[in-house]
Amino acid sequence: MVGYGAQFLCNFIGFLYPAYASIKAIESPQKDDDTKWLTYWVTYSVFSLLEFFADLFLFWVPFYWLLKCIFLVWCFAPIERNGSVTLYYRFIRPFILRHQDKIDKVVDQTKDAIHEVFGLAKEGVSQAKDMAKDLANEETMRRMADQAKMD
Q1: What does the domain layout of the chain look like in residue ranges?
Q2: How far apart are CA 19 and CA 38, in angstroms?
Q3: Is residue 26 packed enough to be buried (19+ CB in 10 Å), middle (13-18) or exposed (0-12)?
Q4: Most buried pick, 88, 111, 129, 130, via CB within 10 A?
Q5: Exposed/middle/buried for residue 66 (C-beta within 10 Å: 0-12, 13-18, 19+)
């Protein structure tokens, strides 16, 4: 958990088992295990986002990867009030519920912008195809004219 492979090992532990357990939860008929693993992934995502912005400072924390690994194991530990449940209900859920309208507005604006970009891209591709067909037709007509002159 220290040294060259620490980051890989930590992320491997924090991702591999939870991913496998999530697949098993999806395939099981119970809903509780789905909720448990969705809570883990939400917590993991929030932590990853915070980690990205704090990376400059985390670099200086001794044994960071060991501490992160312990944190992730606590988050997916098979106990009722594991880390992901505790963090979700204490911090993440209240924050999201308090700002849900603003978040929804940003998500809707982003969707609209993406649809607009894809619409423009689709239109551009369609125009490019039409231009390519026109060029191909012009080339065919030119070859036919050249062939007629030779005959």
Answers
A1: 6-150
A2: 11
A3: exposed
A4: 88
A5: middle
